[in-house]
Automatic annotation (TrEMBL):
Enzyme class, first EC level, given as a word: oxidoreductase
InterPro entries to which the protein is assigned, alphabetical: FAD/NAD-bd_sf, FAD/NAD-binding_dom, NADH-Q_oxidoreductase
Protein name as it appears in the record: Type II NADH:quinone oxidoreductase
Transmembrane regions listed in the UniProt entry: none
Family designation: Belongs to the NADH dehydrogenase family.
Cofactor dependency: FAD
Entries under Pfam families matching the protein: Pyr_redox_2
Source taxonomy: Bacteria, Bacillati, Bacillota, Bacilli, Bacillales
Domain FAD/NAD(P)-binding span(s) in chain numbering: 7-324
EC number: 1.6.5.9
SUPFAM superfamilies xref list: FAD/NAD(P)-binding domain
Length: 403
């Protein structure tokens, strides 16, 4: 390939950004482009495994790997830094490690916690959005259970989980595995523990058919989880959640409080683009920002529309689509550099698997329903595949969940 050497700047090394770089470095030679990747940490973390760290069933180090391990240093410069501003008209990016200019920009800055303005939630509940927050959430649970012998305070044995969405259910699945072990470690009777999940919507896990939802609920209820559905949380405070039941406010008490019910795209999106909703920008079919055909926006900061006109709805933001967006962007950048036309993105939905701890789960895979051990096995395949697709067989062997 021979063309003018362009500066390609990639922001964020999550599933979208790192998949994009991993593919692009295979397509281009050193002479073709000057690729720079900027990410807050020196490591990539598997966001889809964070609930395990937050429940104590996985050490945070097991869910991360150094970014340098997957990039080709001959072709890509990696800069560990925090992006602080994107100046799209000047074609520059400001970071804690200096400013960078670009010809082509890929924004893949991922998700943050969203508390929907619920009073006190950001201050009084833990969120699960990166390895640090996940470790903090687990430490709180462990410290409270350890403290019970001294305090004899039921609040130390009460855990409140806000949200029965995908993350909430996967988290509860891990908790019912780890909390009995913690109880044993600190000499506490597990029957005294209250794990309560509060959900505003009448139905959990809307992406799954009712029989699979019932299976997941029964699995968790059999292990001591209490569900309060149709119950909006109106505030969080030092005692737990305030919820609304039959138009009356009620205080739910707990010393361990975790919020799993909302994420949004990076706040930098609101500062950079117009028309951004909850940190997500509606992108063009080729994944660029409207009016800026040299800026790609991918992963959880993108609203990729499914359908056309009034019926168009954004696809849910997931690791699965983030990786496909990364692959597609690498392809479109290669086409652009060759002087060819970019192609529109088409999502290929492989299905969804929701784990219930390490040995159970529910899933819809290629249109087929699965549950139990089969789903747990499929989840390990999906998790390992994600590592393999970005880092290849050696990384999948050392970090994946199949070996
Ligand atoms: C507990 C949990 C379980 C999940 N389970 C699933 C699942 O089973 N299946 C599924 O498909 N999806 C799942 N998801 C959703 C999935 O994790 C996200 O959709 C996915 O991580 C989005 O990928 P991304 O690359 O856009 O962003 P991210 O993974 O958030 O990566 C963004 C990267 O950018 C970096 N960054 C952010 N801001 C800055 C900045 N200012 N400067 C520099 N770097 C920055 C971050 O450190 C990070 O490395 C789950 C999410 C959670 C929280």
């Amino acid at each position: 390939m021979s063309f003018e050497r362009k500066k390609i700047l990639v922001l964020g090394a999550g599933y979208a950004g790192l998949q994009m770089v991993s593919n692009l470095q295979k397509k281009l030679s050193f002479q073709d482009a000057d690729i720079t990747l900027i990410n807050k940490n020196e490591y990539h973390y598997e966001s889809t495994w964070l609930h395990e760290t937050a429940a104590g069933t996985m050490e945070w180090q097991d869910g991360v790997y150094p970014i340098n391990k997957v990039i080709d240093a001959q072709k890509v410069v990696f800069v560990p830094a925090e992006v602080t501003a994107i100046n799209k008209d000047e074609q520059t990016v400001e970071t804690t490690h200096g400013n960078f200019d670009y010809d082509i920009l890929v924004v893949a800055l991922g998700f943050e916690s969203e508390t929907f303005g619920i009073d006190g939630m950001a201050d009084h509940a833990h969120s699960i959005v990166n390895p640090q927050t996940a470790v903090k959430a687990y430490r709180e649970i462990e410290e409270n259970i350890a403290n019970y012998k001294r305090s004899n305070d039921q609040k130390d044995l009460s855990i409140l989980v806000g949200g029965a969405g995908f993350t909430g259910i996967e988290y509860l699945g891990e908790l019912v595995e780890s909390v009995p072990e913690l109880c044993e470690k600190y000499g506490v009777d597990y029957n005294k523990v209250n794990i309560t999940c509060v959900e505003a919507a009448p139905k959990m896990l809307p992406m799954f058919p009712e029989n699979l939802v019932q299976y997941a609920m029964k699995f968790l209820e059999d292990r001591g989880v209490k569900f309060m559905v149709n119950t909006p949380i109106v505030a969080a405070n030092e005692d737990g959640f305030i919820v609304e039941v039959n138009d009356e406010k009620q205080q739910l008490e707990a010393n361990s409080v975790i919020w799993t019910a909302g994420v949004r795209g990076s706040k930098l999106m609101d500062e950079t683009f117009e028309g951004v909703k909850r940190g997500r920008l509606v992108v063009e079919p080729d994944l660029t920002a409207k009016g800026y055909d040299n800026i790609y926006v991918i992963g959880d900061v993108a609203a990729v529309m499914n359908g056309e006109g009034e019926n168009a709805r954004p696809y849910p933001t997931t690791a699965q689509i983030a990786m496909q967006l990364g692959e597609h962007t690498a392809k479109n950048i290669e086409l652009t550099l060759k002087g060819d036309k970019k192609e529109p993105f088409v999502f290929s939905d492989k299905g969804t698997v929701c784990s219930l701890g390490s040995n159970d789960g529910i899933g819809l895979v290629l249109g087929r329903e699965i549950k139990g051990k089969k789903a747990a096995f499929m989840k390990r395949v999906v998790d390992t595949r994600a590592v393999f697709k970005i880092g290849g067989p050696l990384l999948a062997y050392s970090k994946g969940k199949m070996f």
